[in-house]
Design brief:
It is a lipid-anchor. By secondary structure, this protein is an alpha+beta fold. It has helices at about 10-15, 65-70, 125-135, 170-175, 235-245, 260-265, 295-300, 305-315, 340-350, 370-380, 395-405, 435-445, 450-465, and strands spanning about 45-50, 80-85, 90, 95-100, 105-110, 150-155, 160-165, 200-205, 210-215, 225-230, 250, 270-275, 280-285, 360-365, 385-395, 410-415, 470-475, 480-485, 485-490, 505. A hairpin with a 5-residue loop joins strand 2 (about 80-85) and strand 3 (about 90). The radius of gyration is 23 Å and the shape is globular.
Length: about 500
């Protein structure tokens, strides 16, 4: 692990290991394995990374999407804190911090000698600007709802004092997702000005995004000189690129049928890490007929999740019965709740007044595996008299229609974040689940005095949302990273889609 990993945050920092918010991928130093091939590490190497997730733009508060997180988080931009592969909070741009006795005021001391890629020195004004950008009304950051900030003061250039509107046990954890940017920077949708170990070299839309080692970096230099993210439209093209050495590593393998060719070849290594990405059949719980809990339970029971997972991923991935993956502290195996049972599904539909079934439109993103899953769901629900009309839309259309305007009856979507169960406590979130007890539990958990208290409350939320079939959690994605055997130090886990590149070493 590089010098990026500094002293662990004190009291509230370490407490937030088990808190809410959105997770992130490991530092490469803990993964990637070592190469058995000969040769020496090339400090001037170019590491070519293959991905299916090109950024929509380069601003994570303006709908940049999964791709911008994968390429820029930790590589180009840094936060006051960072998360390790184990989910621990560590100091990064914050040298240290103190918390008031009432838990409402956080005072951060910034690390000295940090410069942006433009050459400007990091100051408290930049931190204030970055926080305000995330919580602004026009921000598209999913994290802004977790940051209930009342006031931000900057007593001097290295001190930031943040006052919260109410106590938040997860505040430091949440700050690890806030990129600190130059407050004077312009056009951040196409350019950048971060403090990370790489600076943006070039972005060719539809093709590639390249990063160069930043020679003015405050910490240990990146282990490689250049990183290029190459973007592909489908898994077959991505795998062909790896086979022909056009890329050195694939961030997330989406074609399990293609894995054997890599497993049987000593020139490659197949890594099966931990994922927090859930595939959801998300109901609009404020739209009929999904206002009725029995209808939601019936639909969940009518779909054979195990068969779907097998058809899409073969022997990879896991079944989940709730929004909580096994890596979250409040995990409980709830796969038996609303489990596959066609007879039960028909009975519930009859009790809800839909003995003859009903029809609804399923808004489906146009990239894999959503179309495949939608077709499977349509055939499964037809067996209990439910007619599904599949409406295929682009990611941009999904964001506007579903996430922003809530103009849908049901949708498919992958949720990549860890510890995101808390969104069911927000009745204004796009799926519209509104249970007063759940909302209260989530609020109490956020203001808990200890992580043990928080965990017990969120276990209650987990079970209640599962029993209510607030959504249908189809399965947990596997996290399969395939790499050349010449590579070492790449991230293994898919927590939040980040892909730290600075520890990757490549044999010459």
């Amino acid at each position: 692990m590089s010098k990026n990993s500094k002293t662990k945050a004190s009291l509230y920092g370490t407490a937030t290991v088990t808190v809410l918010a959105l997770g992130l991928t490991a530092c490469g130093g803990s993964g990637g394995g070592s190469s058995s091939s000969g040769g020496t590490w090339d400090k001037n190497a170019t590491v070519n990374i293959g991905s299916l997730y090109e950024p929509q733009n380069l601003d994570n508060t303006a709908g940049g999407g999964q791709g911008v997180t994968e390429a820029l988080n930790g590589n180009v931009y840094e936060g006051l804190f960072r998360l390790t592969d184990d989910g621990e909070v560590e100091n990064l741009l914050a040298q240290d911090h103190e918390v008031s006795k009432d838990g409402l005021t956080y005072t951060f001391t910034l690390r000295d000698g940090v410069k942006f890629h433009s050459g400007k020195e990091l100051t408290s004004a930049d931190v204030k600007y970055s926080l305000e950008k995330v919580i602004a009304d026009d921000s598209q950051s999913a994290r802004k709802s977790n940051l209930e900030v009342k006031d931000i003061a900057t007593p001097d250039a290295r001190t930031v004092k943040v006052t919260l509107s109410k106590k938040s046990i997860s505040f430091v954890y949440n700050l690890s997702y806030v990129w600190i940017i130059n407050s004077e920077a312009k056009d951040l949708k196409t350019t950048e000005d971060g403090t990370g170990p790489y600076k943006l070299a070039k972005w060719t839309r539809g093709s590639a995004l390249s990063l160069d080692r930043f020679t003015g970096y405050w910490g240990d230099a990146a282990a490689n000189k250049k990183v290029v993210f190459h973007y592909y439209k489908d898994a077959t093209a991505l795998n062909n690129a790896l086979l022909t050495d056009a890329v050195d590593v694939v961030t997330s393998e989406q074609s399990p049928d293609a894995l054997e060719q890599f497993k049987s070849n000593k020139n490659y290594k197949v890594n099966d890490g931990d994922s927090t990405t859930k595939l959801l059949l998300a109901f609009n719980d404020k739209a009929k007929p999904f206002t009725d809990v029995k209808v939601r339970q019936a639909v969940s029971a009518a779909i054979d999740d195990k068969k779907l997972l097998e058809s899409v991923w073969g022997g990879y991935g896991k079944l989940i019965g709730s929004m909580v993956p096994p890596t979250d502290p409040w995990y409980e195996d709830l796969t038996d709740v609303n489990a596959y049972d066609v007879t039960k599904a028909k009975k519930l539909l009859s009790e809800a007044g839909y003995a003859k079934g009903f029809s609804f439109t399923l808004d489906t993103p146009n990239y894999d595996p959503h179309p495949t899953a939608a077709t499977f769901i349509k055939s499964q629900l037809a067996k209990v008299g439910i007619t599904v009309k599949i409406n295929t839309i682009t990611p941009d259309e999904w964001y506007t229609k579903v996430y922003k305007n809530h103009d849908f009856t049901a949708t498919l979507q992958e949720h990549v974040n860890d510890r995101d169960l808390v969104w069911y406590g927000n009745p204004d979130f796009y799926w519209g689940y509104d249970d007063k007890q759940v909302t209260q539990w989530v609020e109490q958990a956020e203001q808990a005095a200890t992580t043990e208290e928080q965990t017990e409350l969120l276990k209650k939320v987990n079970r209640k949302t599962a029993e209510d079939a607030a959504s249908d959690w189809l399965y947990l994605y596997p996290q399969i990273v395939v790499a050349s055997s010449k590579l070492s130090g790449y991230p293994l886990n898919g927590l939040n889609s980040q892909f730290y590149a600075y520890d990757i070493k490549k044999k010459g």
